[in-house]
Structure formats: C-alpha cells, structure tokens
Amino acid sequence: MHRLWVAALPTLLWGCGAWAQDKTLDEIARYRAQLQDGNPAELWEARGEDVWKQKRGPKKASLEQCDLGKGPGVVKGAYAELPRYFADAGRVMDLESRLVHCMGTRQGIPHAEAAGRVFGSGSKRSDIEALTAWITSESKGVVMNVSLDHPQVKQAYNLGEKMFFFRGGPHDFACATCHGESGKRIRLQDLPNLTEKKGAQLGYTTWPAYRVSQGELRTFQWRLNDCFRQQRFPDLVFGSELSIALTTYLAYNANGAAFNAPAIKR
C-alpha cells in the first residue's frame, strides 16, 4: 500500500494544483466582474467630451471639425477603424497621435504642450486621456475593422509584427515572451495570447482602461510604454512610428470583435 501511495502521490498533487489553479481563476473572474460596476472612466469620458467642444489654443478653436477618419467631427465608430493612413498628415496615425495633430493644426497648440504630459497622473495628467476615453466610448459595441488596404498601413503592420517578436534588453524579452503562449499569468493578471485571434481581440478591445491600482485612466499608448518599461527597453516615444506600428499590428489582429472600452482593470 505504501508503494501504491507513493506512486499515486504525483497524480494527486497535480490534481490538487489544477483544482487550486481553476479556483484562483474563478476568483479572479469574479473580482473583475465586481469591478465593472460604476467604472470611474465615465468621469474621464465626460471631461473628454467637454474638451472636444472647448475653443482653445492660439486659434481659439474647438476640435469639433477634427477628422478621425470618418469625416470632420464624426466620432461614432471612428476608433474601431484606427490606426489608418491620413493624407493630410502623410502618415499612419492612431487616435492619440491624430488628436495631437488636430490640436496643432486646428487649435495652434504646440506639440510639446499637447503631448508633454500624456503619461502623467493627478495634476500632471494631459487632456489626451480624457479625449481618448470619450472618443473610444463612442465606438463601444462597434466591430473592429482596421484596413490594411493602404500600403503604408500594411507596412506599419509588418513592422509591428517584427517588433512584437523582437527580443532585446537586459532580459532578452519580447512582447511575445509574455503574450505568445496561452495560460500565462503574472500574479492576478492574465496574459492574453496575442498571437491567437481570441487573445488578440480580448487584449486590444479592453483598452483604454481605468486602473484601480493607480486611480487613473490609461490609454493604449501608455499600455505599450509600460510593457517596454517592464521589458527594460528604452521609453517608447509617444506617437512615434514604432508605437503606431505595434498598435496597428495588434489592432488589426483584433478585427471582428466588438470594441468594449474604456474598461476597468486592477
């Protein structure tokens, strides 16, 4: 009997471990479901709509005629088709870089002022977070439909894919190190497998998000920059070609899913 018990012990331990793992995942899911009630992101959304309509900057103009890709002033559903190529800027843009562009061209606000505090918090937070919260909320429920028809968008996608799998830094990390396999988790945080359709859709369509642990609304550019920080890479330059390329890769891979942000996360 003793030998039988010893032989069966690994199987029993594995079963206990699997049960504990499933129970932990169930508790995490329940915790996240509870968080969804009363998302503070609504405060950022209200402020963002107000900022969109304010006449500001040297030109004393609002952003109400800013073209986000569906025509001047059209916000509904715009985020579900970004990033995209903008002929007036001659480049591919995501929402945040497009907003900075419009703040410069329509309102005369210098780039350094418009983008200078995008990763800040508290009194140092910028208007980009609020604008992003409101504009993305106007695409809630809209199916992601990023197009690669323009050659520059296709080029951005290809560059973003290379970036996703590029290994570097002191730990030889890549985006794929954390997000290239299923079933991974850091503490209470599930790590979606962004190389699979379901994981890519879940990972992209729930940003921007209100971070409970920080008490702030965080944008997708912030999320990418934070990943770079954890990889011990140099800071990701806000609105840079590389940041938009990686966003294009992830956004396109989320096509077919209903957008569901601003969300709320731990």
Task: Looking at this protein, list some descriptive labels.
Cytochrome Bc1 Complex, Chain D, domain 2; 10 helices; 266 residues; mainly alpha; 3-stranded mixed sheet
The overall strand count is: 7
CATH class: Mainly Alpha
In terms of DSSP E residues, the strand content is: 5-15%
Tally of DSSP helical segments: 10
Strand order of the largest sheet: 6-5-7
Question: Which architecture would the CATH scheme give at its second level?
Answer: Orthogonal Bundle
| Helix share, percent | 40-55%
Low-confidence stretches: none
Q: Would you tell me which CATH topology applies? A: Cytochrome Bc1 Complex, Chain D, domain 2
How confident is the prediction overall: mean pLDDT?
A: 85
Any idea what the radius of gyration is?
21 Å
Shape, principal axes of CA atoms: globular
| First-residue to last-residue Cα separation | 48 Å
Total of domains: 1
Largest sheet: 3 strands, mixed
Helix-strand makeup class: mainly alpha
Question: Would you write up a description of this structure?
Answer:
With 266 residues, the protein is mostly helical. It has a single domain (41-265), classed as Cytochrome Bc1 Complex, Chain D, domain 2. The chain is 47% helix and 8% strand. It has 10 helices and 7 strands. The chain has a 3-stranded mixed sheet. Strands 1-2 form a two-stranded antiparallel sheet. The protein has a two-stranded antiparallel sheet with strand order 3-4. Strand 1 and strand 2 form a beta hairpin. Helix 2 crosses helix 5. It is globular, with a radius of gyration of 21 Å. The termini are far apart. The model has no long low-confidence stretch (mean pLDDT 85).
